[in-house]
Structures are given as structure tokens and as C-alpha cells.
Design goal:
heterodimer; A: alpha+beta; Rieske Iron-sulfur Protein; 2 domains; six-stranded antiparallel β-sheet; four-stranded antiparallel β-sheet; 1 helix; 10 strands; 29% helix; elongated; B: mainly alpha; disordered N terminus
Chain lengths: 157, 452
């Protein structure tokens, strides 16, 4: 009787074991996949090029050559501040900080008249960044410009 | 007897000549020794050496430099450091006399043109002998103006000197110094731009000296607290106006009410243009009110605040406009637009700063916020149009920028929380995985025992 009881118990355990093992295996597979995902997602984010560089940027792409025809200007982002690049009526490319030295508004190039204007208080700078009139106390900081292929690169000291 | 007198005179003349030669020789020898000792190594000292060379035969310099009288020695040393000596102008060019004469009486013979020290009221004319002569001045500096005397005579100082014989008013030497006059671009000059407030205040802040003149003596104290004073005296911004920036220098006087705005417009031209096109212009002209001054003050011009439009105690609009007037409504509306934009910028700045402090890359949001602040600055300037719609248009553009910055800032905070949740979730997954792995290992070892 005792043997019969033992015989009837053993087959019951062997029926449950594969199901339990199957659940465990599937759970392990699922969690391992999730873990791989948790590792790969931030890794992918890290490897992806940031959209814009901030802070202490020393050099940046200001514009494409075709974007700045004679007697025109363009505002570009240089780190956390705007920069201005323009081509004089004579064809010379120049770049300066676009932050007005008065109250930090963004300046702009004025075609035909050929000067740099801060529209906030009508501060005017010449094409060398020197103050012509208005309240700006200091000239604009000039950047170095060089062309690499189709790119106009700007470097600050 | 006559022969004796003649001999005595000749002896005295010879004695004076010897003295002059001895002084000149001593002066020259001292210079040579200094040069050998390397004491004239700097460029400034070299220029003094040139002066000494230029003036070494000048009996005014050689005698006065070695006089027993310390004041005269100091005066001569002072002169040698000044622009006149450096440009080759000698004592006799101003004071007359004969610098080549070895005899003291002959050198300072009034009959031969020696003037000596001019009376105080004669000083402007004294300096103008050269400084009003374009042909003469051109030989020294073609860019130096020659209208100083003409301007001085229409100045507050010049008028008092001319009409009232007031010998306390400033003359040329009061501001420029006397013998060691330096050019205005020399930082040691009393008329160097950052020294001007101190120079003017040496008289204008002296209540005893200024007594009876019925003008205040606190201009310097006020100026020091002003945006212009702080810019010039604390921040070293030489573009900021000193006293002469608004009052003029040689033609210094109090600006007329109608001229105040033009004075300010030397720098703040845009504001002037807006003001002239506004309804205030005609009203101010009618009442003869100083345009900029009535709201911003004069010597103590402070940084503008939004409270100047509408507030209980700082509103300058409220000084003239009643609370039920059209003008007050315009001020209130303009203020509402500006303050709303300012508050939005402040609140988004807090979010962006928080994002940056917790290590998020907030550069984009910061850049956009700067653009929004641009619009805020513009809108504040546009207050001088006194048109609500002009202000509203700019603040609207600013609001759009703030909203953009807000999206970027909130996005950063959400990203931070997402990362935090992701970290906790991955930690939970790792723990669960460990538990399941343990169970799996146990189940595998259990089944292998059964098989055994």
C-alpha cells in the first residue's frame, strides 16, 4: 500500500516539472531580452551625435558657401551664443559674435547700407565690428573664418 | 671808479655765466651718470633724456631745475614730463624771456618780452595764443582742435570769468594742470575720461568753494551710483559718458531742457527717434519739460525697471497721468505685456536651470531663452513709442520663444525622469533575473538528482 502510494506520487511530480521549467526558461529569455534592451538603448543614445554643441565650442560650421552671397549676412549658433557671418559688398567673408555689447541683443547685417545693426537700441557697428553710433560700449569680437570645401567654418580665439 | 664798476659788472657777469655753465654741466653730467647707471632704460625715461638734450642749453630749465627753491625744482621736473616739453615747446614759448641768456636779469627781462606767471583771469587768453592758432598747432598735431578758447568763452565758466570777473571759475589750468600738462589720452591726465568726474568734482563737490553759486554739490555722489558712473568708474567702460559727455568740456554748461534729449541721443538715438514720433514730444515742448530727464533723472540715472511704468511708488507715468486717464491705461497695458513676458522667462529659466543642475544638456533651451530675452529688451525700448500694439507685437514674439524654450526645458525634465525610471526598471529586471536564474539552477540540479 505504501509502495502504491509512492508510485502514485512520483508520476505527479514529473508532470509538473517540465511546465515549471518551461515557465522559468521563457521568463529568463524574456528578462534577458529586456536586459539587453536596457543596455543597448542608452548605449545607442550615447553613440548618437548630439544635435548641437553647446558651451565651450571653439569652432563651428557657420554656413554653407552658397548661403552667404555678397552683401548679405546670416546668424549662426556658436555654442550658447549667436554669431554673425556676412560677406561684404567686396566679397570678403567676416564673422563676429552677434551679441551686442550693450544689452546682449542679437545684431544683424544690413545690406546696401553695409553695417551691423542691433535693433534693440539702434547700436551700429561697421564691418570691422567697431562701434559707429548708439549705446554699445565696445566693438564686437571677431572670429576667424576659413572655408573647407562647401563649409564656412568659424573659429574663436 | 668807472673802470672799477665796469670791472665789477664784468666780474658778476662772468660769475653768473660760470654759474650757468656749472649748472648746465652738472645737469648734463648727472644725466650721463643716470644713463650709465641704467636709470633711463625705459622708453619714458628715454623721452625725458631727449627732452633734457633738447633743453640742455635752456637756461630756464637749467637754473630752475637746480634752484634752492624746491617748488621751482618740482615745477621744472613736472614740466619736463608734460606734453609741451616732449613736443619741444619751451618755457619761453609761454612765458617769454630769453632762454639763451646766461644772465638771470637778461633771461627774464620784461622789456625783452618776459611775461612771467599770468593772472588767473588771463590764463585762457594765455593758452589761446597758441591753441587758437590753427597754423601753429598744425605743426604739432594736425588733429588738435583750435576752438577751445571760443568754446570756453560761451561756457558757464567762461561767461562768469568774462562778465563777473569771478576768479574762482575753472580756467584751462584748473582741469589740465599747469606745467606738466598731459594729453587727454594719458591715464594720468586729469582730463582722461575716467578722471574727469574727479577733476570736475574737485570744485563742484566742494560746498565751501561752491558757496553762493546755487548749484548742488552732490553730482559726483549721484553719478557714482548711476549706470553711467558704474560703467565708467567700476567697469572701466571708456565709452560711458563722464561729466563732459553731457555738459561738454571747454563749453561746459547746463543743457537747456530742449537740448537734453539731443544730449542723450548722442548714444541713445533710437530712443530719441521713438520719443520724437510719440505724442509726448509736443506735450513736453509745450511745457518746456526736459525730455529724458523728467523720467530718468540726470546725474543719478539708474538701471530702468518695469516698475517705472506702473507701480505704487516707482511709477514715473503716474507722476503726470491720473489712474483714469488714457495715458495711464497705455502704461498699464504696456506694463502687462512686458511683465507677462518677463514672468514667463523667469519661470522657464527656473525649469531650464533645474535641468542643467541635474546634469542635462540644456544648451538648446538656454539659447532659445536668450532669444526670448532679446525680445524683452526690445519691448522695453519700445515703451518710448507709447504704443501698446508695438510693445505687444514684440512681446508676442518673445512669448513664442519662451514657449519653445519651455517645451525644450520640460522635455529635458521628462527625459531625466524617463532615465530615472529606466534605471530603476533595469535594476528590477536584473534582480528578477537573478532570482529566476537561481530557481532555474535549482530546478536543473533537482531534475538531475531524480534522473540519478
Amino acid at each position: 500500500m505504501a509502495n502504491t502510494h509512492e508510485m502514485s506520487k512520483k508520476p505527479a511530480r514529473t508532470v509538473k516539472e517540465p511546465a515549471k521549467r518551461d515557465f522559468l526558461t521563457k521568463s529568463l529569455a524574456g528578462l534577458t531580452t529586456a536586459l539587453v534592451g536596457f543596455i543597448l538603448y542608452p548605449l545607442g543614445k550615447f553613440l548618437k551625435q548630439p544635435p548641437a554643441a553647446g558651451g565651450n565650442v571653439k569652432r563651428t560650421l557657420a554656413a554653407k558657401v552658397g548661403e552667404v552671397p555678397n552683401d548679405s549676412g546670416k546668424i549662426f549658433r556658436f555654442g550658447n551664443d549667436p554669431g554673425i557671418i556676412f560677406r561684404t559688398p567686396g566679397g570678403e567673408l567676416k564673422a563676429f559674435t552677434a551679441v551686442c555689447t550693450h544689452l546682449s541683443c542679437t545684431v544683424q547685417y544690413v545690406p546696401v547700407e553695409s553695417y551691423i545693426l542691433c535693433a534693440c537700441h539702434n547700436g551700429k557697428y561697421d564691418l570691422n565690428g567697431q562701434v559707429i553710433s548708439g549705446p554699445p560700449p565696445r566693438p564686437l569680437e571677431e572670429y576667424q573664418v576659413d572655408i573647407q570645401g562647401d563649409d564656412i567654418m568659424v573659429t574663436r580665439a | 671808479m668807472q673802470t672799477e664798476i665796469h670791472t665789477m659788472k664784468a666780474f658778476h657777469k662772468l660769475k653768473k655765466s660760470c654759474k650757468a655753465y656749472l649748472v648746465t654741466a652738472t645737469f648734463g653730467l648727472a644725466y650721463v651718470m643716470m644713463a650709465l647707471a641704467g636709470l633711463v632704460a625705459t622708453s619714458h625715461a628715454e623721452s625725458e633724456a631727449e627732452i633734457a638734450d633738447h633743453l640742455k642749453d635752456n637756461s630756464c630749465v637749467s637754473c630752475h631745475l637746480n634752484e634752492v627753491d624746491d617748488d621751482n625744482t618740482a615745477m621744472t621736473e613736472h614740466f619736463l614730463k608734460g606734453i609741451h616739453a616732449r613736443r619741444g615747446v619751451s618755457c619761453s614759448d609761454c612765458h617769454g624771456g630769453n632762454p639763451k641768456a646766461e644772465d638771470e636779469d637778461e633771461a627774464m627781462d620784461e622789456d625783452a618780452g618776459f611775461i612771467g606767471a599770468p593772472d588767473r583771469e588771463e590764463i585762457p587768453k594765455f593758452c589761446a595764443k597758441c591753441h587758437s592758432d590753427p597754423n601753429y598747432i598744425r605743426g604739432f598735431n594736425p588733429n588738435l582742435p583750435t576752438d577751445q578758447y571760443a568754446k570756453y568763452m560761451i561756457s558757464g565758466h567762461g561767461k562768469r570769468l568774462l562778465k563777473s570777473n569771478d576768479d574762482k571759475v575753472a580756467v584751462c589750468t584748473s582741469c589740465h594742470g599747469v606745467h606738466g600738462i598731459l594729453p587727454p589720452n594719458d591715464p594720468k591726465s586729469p582730463v582722461y575720461v575716467s578722471n574727469i568726474p574727479g577733476t570736475c568734482s574737485s570744485c563742484h563737490s566742494d560746498s565751501t568753494y561752491m558757496s553762493g553759486r546755487h548749484i548742488p554739490v552732490d553730482q559726483l555722489d549721484e553719478y557714482k551710483t548711476s549706470v553711467h558712473g558704474i560703467a565708467l568708474l567700476e567697469n572701466g567702460d571708456r565709452g560711458a559718458p563722464s561729466c563732459t559727455g553731457c555738459h561738454g568740456s571747454h563749453d561746459a554748461r547746463r543743457p537747456e531742457p530742449s537740448g537734453v534729449a539731443n544730449t542723450c541721443a548722442q548714444c541713445h538715438n533710437f530712443i530719441r527717434e521713438m520719443f520724437v514720433a510719440s505724442p509726448h514730444k509736443a506735450a513736453f515742448d509745450e511745457e518746456n519739460i526736459s525730455e529724458c530727464e523728467v523720467c530718468h533723472g540726470n546725474h543719478a540715472i539708474q538701471k530702468v525697471t518695469d516698475d517705472m511704468l506702473v507701480s505704487e511708488d516707482k511709477s514715473v507715468c503716474g507722476e503726470c497721468h491720473d489712474s483714469d486717464s488714457k495715458g495711464w491705461k497705455v502704461a498699464t497695458d504696456m506694463s502687462a505685456h512686458i511683465v507677462a513676458l518677463r514672468n514667463q522667462i523667469d519661470s522657464i529659466t527656473l525649469i531650464v536651470d533645474s535641468a542643467r543642475e541635474i546634469g542635462m544638456d540644456a544648451e538648446d533651451a538656454i539659447y532659445i531663452l536668450k532669444e526670448a530675452r532679446n525680445e524683452l529688451v526690445k519691448s522695453r525700448a519700445l515703451v518710448h513709442t507709447f504704443k501698446t500694439e508695438d510693445v505687444a507685437e514684440v512681446t508676442k514674439a518673445g512669448t513664442e520663444k519662451v514657449q519653445e524654450a519651455g517645451v525644450a526645458g520640460r522635455g529635458l525634465m521628462e527625459q531625466f525622469h524617463f532615465r530615472k525610471r529606466g534605471f530603476l526598471l533595469s535594476l528590477a529586471v536584473i534582480l528578477l533575473l537573478s532570482v529566476l536564474l537561481t530557481l532555474k539552477i535549482r530546478s536543473l540540479s533537482g531534475s538531475s538528482k531524480i534522473e540519478e
